[in-house]
Description:
It contains 10 helices and 17 strands. It has 317 residues and is an alpha/beta fold. It has an 8-stranded mixed beta sheet with strand order 3-9-2-1-12-16-17-15, with helices on both faces. Strands 8-4-10-11 form a 4-stranded mixed beta sheet. Strands 5-7-6 form a 3-stranded antiparallel beta sheet. β6 and β7 form a beta hairpin.
Amino acid sequence: MRVVVALGGNALLRREERPDAAVQLANVRAAVAALAPLAREHELVITHGNGPQVGILALESAADRSLSSPYPFDVLGAETQGMIGYWLLQSLQNALPGRQVCALLNQTLVSAADPAFADPAKFVGPVYDRDEAEHLAAERGWTVKRDGTHWRRVVPSPRPQRVVETRLIRLLLQSGAVAVCAGGGGVPVIRDEQGQLTGVEAVVDKDLTAALLAEALDADALLLLTDVPHVSLHYGTSEAEPIGRTTPAALRAQRFPAGSMGPKVDAVCRFVELTGGTAAIGALQDARAILDGTAGTVVTPTGRDLDGRLDAHEDLR
């Protein structure tokens, strides 16, 4: 099978962890240990988030007095692609001796007219309490929003239209390589009036890019791997109910937070609706079981597995 996996930024740098290189590298190695069995059995494309990492670089850039202005987010996105891509590349090479692995810098085309530019919603950087977040927003001109029990900076997140280097990624897969690409959703770019690509101040949602890329590559499965074991109804309350096997229609009938689970649900539903394939959301350490359909929230056109069976969440359909 051809499988596209999207690693959440918080799966690589967990909440409350110090953003040291050693901490992130240890998390990358743990991620690769979970993904290596998939790479041995399937064609594999790995994308990754960069929310925590790009936020840290943005803080550093804003505090650097040698700069006349902070680096824009397209440049910071490219930096995180290189950093995280390097860690994944090296760890995959060590885990898969003899297998070719490529970490590719990618641009993602967005529309200059996307309404997201007027309504920032993508979380980046560390978490704060409300008072600190509001102070930083006033001091630095940020937009901040609630993220669960914390507050974080938000930036525009236009919808991806195409990964510019899709054909090159397809060639890598056809050669038998594992491809690490579209990190952080890809560097956001638009085409100007002369048809030239140019970067924009934004962060593209990596799950939506992963779904777009999986569709363009004719992937059989899309896995969105994060730090939670499944999608839940009433998440964070005493009435939380895990969702197992389900359908796009059932998921779209529920409401999920726009800044966290909402884009993931949108991504898996879009992929299944457009391709008839299988998509899933779940914990990184359960990657193999999720692909086997025995863990996570698995989305198929009918809500059934290959044997025609339904799980305990049949009522969601």
